[in-house]
C-alpha cells in the first residue's frame, strides 16, 4: 500500500504529510496507511472533487482536502492556508503523464528541511524535468512486517477496501473486472 514509501520518507507520528495523487489507487491507500501510522494531518490536493469529499468523509478532520486550480502559485497558497502548520513531507504518486509542475507545487509547499519522495514517475515522459538528489527503489524487508503488524493490531483498517474475489480459473474475468472497476479503495483478488 504505502507503508514502504512512508518508511523511506521516515514519516513520524504527529507529522503532516501531503499525498500528491491522493485521489488515485496508491495515493488513497497511502492516506489510510499514514493515518494508521499516526500522521497528525494528511493533505490531499487534487482535482477530483468526488474523491476528495470521499476521503474527508471516510477519515474525518485529519484529512485536509485541497482543490487544485492548476495555477502553481495559487495552489501553493491554497495548500498553505488549509493546513494547521508546516507540511513535513510529500509523497508523490502522480503518473508519468502528469505535468511536472504539479509535483513541483507539492514539493514547494514543504517546510524547510522537509522530505519528498517521487514515486509515480511524473516528468519521466520528457518535457519539464524534476531533479532528484536521493532516491530509493523498492523497499526494505521491514516494511512488510510493519504493515502486517499494523493490520493485526487494528491500526490499519482494511475494511475500507471493497474487495471482489475470483477463483483462479476465472482469472480472465478478474482482469476485466479490475480494468472496469478500478479506483480508490477497490481491489480485485484472484484466490487459488
Task: Provide a short characterization of the protein structure.
The chain is α/β, with parallel strands linked by helices. It contains seven helices and seven strands, in the order αβαβαβαβαβαβαβ.
Q: What brief labels describe this structure?
A:
single chain, 192 residues, alpha/beta, Rossmann fold, 2 domains, 5-stranded parallel beta sheet, two-stranded parallel ribbon, 7 strands, 22% strand
Task: Explain this structure.
The chain has 192 residues and is of the alpha/beta class. Helices cover 38% and strands 22% of the residues. The strands form two sheets. The chain has a five-stranded parallel sheet with strand order 3-2-1-4-5, with helices on both faces. α7 (171-180) links the parallel β6 (162-167) and β7 (186-191). α4 (72-82) packs parallel to α5 (100-108). The model has no long low-confidence stretch (mean pLDDT 84).
Question: How many domains in all?
Answer: 2
- CATH topology call of the largest domain: Rossmann fold
**Cα distance spanning the termini:** 22 Å
Portion of residues within helices? 25-40%
Estimate the strand proportion. Answer: 15-25%
Radius of gyration: 17 Å
The count of β-strands is 7
Mean pLDDT: 84
Give a short account of the largest sheet.
Answer: 5 strands, parallel
Spell out the blueprint of helices and strands:
Elements: H1 3-9, E1 16-20, H2 25-36, E2 41-46, H3 49-59, E3 63-67, H4 72-82, E4 87-92, H5 100-108, E5 110-118, H6 142-153, E6 162-167, H7 171-180, E7 186-191
Helix pairs in contact: 4-5
Amino acid at each position: 500500500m504505502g507503508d514502504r514509501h512512508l518508511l523511506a520518507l521516515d514519516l513520524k507520528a504527529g507529522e503532516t504529510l501531503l499525498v500528491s495523487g491522493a485521489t488515485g489507487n496508491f495515493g488513497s491507500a497511502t492516506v489510510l496507511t499514514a493515518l494508521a501510522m499516526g500522521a497528525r494531518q494528511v493533505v490531499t490536493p487534487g482535482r477530483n472533487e468526488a474523491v476528495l469529499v470521499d476521503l474527508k468523509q471516510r477519515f474525518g478532520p485529519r484529512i485536509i482536502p485541497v482543490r487544485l486550480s492548476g495555477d502553481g502559485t495559487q495552489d501553493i497558497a491554497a495548500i498553505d492556508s488549509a493546513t494547521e502548520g508546516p507540511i513535513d513531507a510529500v509523497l508523490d504518486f502522480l503518473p508519468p503523464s502528469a505535468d511536472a509542475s504539479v509535483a513541483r507545487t507539492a514539493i514547494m509547499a514543504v517546510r524547510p528541511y522537509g522530505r519528498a519522495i517521487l514515486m509515480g514517475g511524473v516528468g519521466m515522459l520528457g518535457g519539464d524535468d524534476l531533479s532528484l538528489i536521493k532516491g530509493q527503489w523498492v523497499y526494505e524487508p521491514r516494511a512488510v512486517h510493519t504493515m502486517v503488524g499494523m493490520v493485526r493490531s487494528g491500526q490499519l483498517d482494511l475494511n475500507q477496501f471493497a474487495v471482489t474475489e475470483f477463483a483462479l480459473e476465472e482469472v480472465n474475468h478478474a482482469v476485466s473486472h479490475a480494468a472496469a472497476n478500478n479506483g480508490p479503495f477497490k481491489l480485485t483478488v484472484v484466490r487459488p
